[in-house]
Amino acid sequence: MAESETIQKARELRRQLMGDAYVDRMNQTVYADPIMQRFADLAAETVFAALWARPGLDLKTRTLVCVVSDATTGRAPELAIHLRMALRQGWTEDQLVEVLLHLTGYVGVPLIREALITATEVFAEVRAGR
Questions:
Q1: DSSP 51
Q2: Which CATH number describes the domain made up of 58-130?
Q3: What's the number of CA atoms in the CB half-sphere (13 Å) around residue 119?
């Protein structure tokens, strides 16, 4: 079945946010499974097409909202994805670390410690071109 124009635009936005190499790697690993492909299709339509493409906030701001949300809810795998997006949208490592450190006083040391461990790993991967 051919993809709708909405899904095509959502996939383009996902590539813009994550980068071709990362999207290709995810498509060949996590989303190669038919069940996860169904999830990816749903996420493209409901998250990227419906939320990320909305007017009112730029992509840079939206990535920071996701980083904060993931860190405060302890969602390390999603945090890794959104940190990559945030870096691609112009946030620096130092700015992202400072945002996470600021959250320590509001959500607690254990959550932010885990978020900083994830950030350290992601930053090293991105610097290494992975």
A1: I
A2: 1.20.1290.10
A3: 25
Domain with CATH 1.20.1290.10 in the chain: 58-130
CA distance 46 to 31: 17
Other C-beta atoms closer than 10 Å to the C-beta of 37 total: 13
Give the tokens for residue 116. 């900083």
53 and 10 Cβ atoms separated by less than 8 Å: yes
Q: Distance between CA atoms of 31 and 21, rounded to whole angstroms?
A: 14
Single pTM value for the model: 0.91
Q: What is the tens place of the pLDDT at every residue in 51-105? A: 999 999 999 999 999 999 999 999 999 999 999 999 999 999 999 999 999 999 9
pLDDT band at 6 (very low <50, low <70, confident <90, very high): confident
Indicate left, alpha or beta for 3 from its phi (over 0: left) and psi (-120 to 50: alpha): beta
Within 10 angstroms of residue 62's Cβ, the number of other Cβ atoms is 20
